[in-house]
């Protein structure tokens, strides 16, 4: 009887561990490319020029910072869309992102850390309620481009890949 209970508990443990390792259905998880179909990741130079540079190009609390925030948010979302990050080689992307970040000065890294939080909040808010954020983008002259990006469902997935991997940049277990 003890062997039967031990066997039953062991099988239950094995099945629960297997269930934990299973992937979520495609509708719940962002589309990630498998190793055979992954697109080439953006280079460290691309990350510097098209991702980090727009984020560090302004300082909160300075004149025009809300306009610069809207412009940077549009550029960051455009980068995610143009690079189709939903289908990228995530480990290579994370390596290149980290190389680019480490090439920044300590001051620029601190500015990035501060500004990215505002950009992330603004972009996520745009996906949730574009109309409440539209004014800032109209003032900055990027409303049409931002609206077009927000209408494409693949852009949101690419943004989520970029956002999540930015938050875990430098950690070995990416999202």
Description:
This protein is an all-alpha fold. It has one domain (about 45-165). Helices cover about 70% and strands about 0% of the residues. It is built from 8 helices and no strands. The longest helix has 23 residues, at about 105-130. It is globular and about 35 Å long. Mean pLDDT is about 85; it is low at about 15-35.
Index terms:
about 180 residues; mainly alpha; globular
Number of strands: 0
What's the helix-strand series? HHHHHHHH
- Proportion in helices: over 70%
Overall pLDDT confidence: 83
* Radius of gyration, taken over Cα atoms and rounded to an integer in Å: 20 Å
As a percent range, the share of strand residues is: under 5%
What is the first-to-last residue Cα distance? 44 Å
What is the domain tally? 1
Bulk shape: globular
The main pleated sheet reads as: none
Query: Spans with pLDDT under 50 lasting ≥5 residues?
Result: 14-35
What's the tally of helices? 8
> Could you say which structural class the secondary elements and strand pairing correspond to?
mainly alpha
